[in-house]
Design goal:
With about 220 residues, the chain is α/β, with parallel strands linked by helices. Helix content is about 25%, strand content about 25%. Strands 3-2-1-4-5-9-6 form a 7-stranded mixed β-sheet, sandwiched between helices. A two-stranded antiparallel sheet has the order 7-8.
Amino acid sequence: MGDVRRIVVVVEDKEAARTALQWALHNLFRQGDIIVLLHVISPPPRKKKSTAARLLRRHGYHLALSFREICDAFFNTNTEIIVREGDEDGRTIAEVVKELGASMILVGLHQNSFLYRWAMSGIDVTRNLGCKVMAIKQPSSEESPPGKLKGRMTSHTTATSDSLTNFDFSQIEISGLQVPEIRTPKVPYRLCPSPRAILWRTRPRRSKARYAVVS
């Protein structure tokens, strides 16, 4: 039996984050893994810090609970929730990942994802997070109908819409599962599939005397 893996899932109010979690539940997580649902909230303004912070934490916790409900739909999942106040540039996420000693972090990629900002700035993603990084790219709505999702692993050199950037993390592009049409195979017709299945019918011989010429 292998060591228990602690996998951090970045919780965001984005469809890409929910899609990433659903994909991982189908394809990545295994029995015994501890799924840590991590949500980082931005510091509120100083004037209304106490009240705003309380509301933000409550909203963040309810958001994480909605992610836990997705996990609970799968058998025997072990989840933890962490809501932490911090910045949006990924440093707080990196701190929590290192504190937990996580073996992997799962991120749903979107336009404002901190992984994109790190990669564009030349930051070593894997070194700063200290674990394997799995980034899930959500397909467009017309490309992927709802349902079970499958993935296609891309190389570390990933093409964006504007340019080519060397990303220091594993990116997976997912698409809807399409079942190909399977035609019924043609079975060749055999005249004699089994000799024992042939029924022989014998006809009685006609007596020659019956057709004798009477003189």
